[in-house]
Amino acid sequence: MDSPNKRLAVLARQCCAGAADGGTWEHVQQAPPDPIIGVNDSYRADTDPRKLNLGVGAYRTEEGKPYVLRAVREAEAALAADPAANKEYLPIAGLPEFCRLSRELALGPGHAAVRDGRVATVQALSGTGALRVGAEFLAQHLPPGQPRVVYVPNPTWGNHKTIFGKAGMQVREYRYFCPKTRGLDFAGMLADLSSAPPGAVLLLHACAHNPTGVDPTPEQWRQLLALTQEKRLLPFFDSAYQGFASGDLDADAASVRLFASAPGPQELVLAQSYAKNMGLYGERAGALSVVCKTKDVAGRVESQLKLVIRPMYSNPPMHGAAIAARVMSDPRLNALWKEELAGMANRIKAMRQALYAQLTARQLPGDWSFVLKQIGMFSYTGLSKAQCEVLTAKWHIHLTMDGRISMAGLSAASCPYLAEAIADVVANVK
Ligand code: PLA
Hints:
Domain Aminotransferase class I/classII large: 50-422
Strand order of the largest sheet: 2-10-9-8-7-3-4
Cofactor: pyridoxal 5'-phosphate
Shape: globular
Strand content: 5-15%
InterPro entries: Aminotransferase_I/II_large, Asp_trans, NHTrfase_class1_PyrdxlP-BS, PyrdxlP-dep_Trfase, PyrdxlP-dep_Trfase_major, PyrdxlP-dep_Trfase_small
Order of helices and strands: HHEHHHEHEHEEEHEHEHEEHHHHEHEEH
Helix content: 40-55%
Subunit structure: Homodimer.
Oligomer: single chain
Bound molecules: ligand PLA
Number of domains: 2
Family: Belongs to the class-I pyridoxal-phosphate-dependent aminotransferase family.
């Protein structure tokens, strides 16, 4: 017979370890794959030589290869050769030069808000990190008594809702996309935002809305600004595609600049990513800016942003921000970057033409001109989940199940194959 003490010890061990042999984490459930990043895994696991990855928005060359910009390669070479470079910690707010150049890239050099020191900017872990730090800051520092509510478009990039939700913000949707017209449901958008409580945060995609590729017109942006001011909403711009939509960095910043230049002065929050426009995906280079009413407030806001960052990851990584700062500050590299950016945007536009031509040649039912009209990296096809599943299972075309395809993953060679596959599922799958 075991002594009572020994039996107690065994019982205690079993309790700590969970009931079965799986140990402490026996009860942990398998999580579903990420709806976007998970597509990379299904693509990798596919052994068919015809396989095509149109899931994650990552630029590929005509040969289907990832592309490192020449401007980036040259900046890296210069950084590696710099004898004064070191690997010390960056400040909590990141590389000051990178922060300055980032806000100027978005707002335009010499913008009054920048000149007056009204913009608090911190470096962030790409666009996602900027959104997360921004959301956390809002949840903590919106005025007392004001609702912690953010309005996001329906649909939006899937991670938006999780990011704001995890930060403790209540997430509500506003109407955005009309499936019938495959355009903007502007009346629905205005109606939903008109009933938002004062002080609510309004998440806007600065350009190249993901996943729909549908943006407001300049006139609609002006109306949105007027509504924002009238209802006292706080705009939060997610700028993940500046320069990538049109090929022109200034043109793609028009919405942000319109709001930032409004008399008032207008307050706003801005998340920037260099993943797409500089091809720095894995370097996690991004920035968060909070445009404030006064310089004094901006200083205090920056001090609180640092308190959000310090317990999360202490300070941001150096390499990506150093590359981006170099590319933006060196006139020759900056010109090269703009040239390459236009080249990437143009290749995506050419893929729209090529896919549209292939689809119309197959005389598919319905109007597919949205392929030409949608802006940015993605086409939002309207294909059903069942049709997407067949595209993957039968045709080895990997895409997100909402019918979004990354145009940047297509090439002249793969367009006919995709069109054939789409024609098949449109004809045979509901
Ligand atoms: N905001 C929007 C609107 C995005 O589309 C993405 C990336 C991000 C922010 C975040 O990008 P970053 O953190 O890498 O800077 N969306 C991708 C990738 C390209 C992803 O889902 O993470 C997409 O395929 O939708």
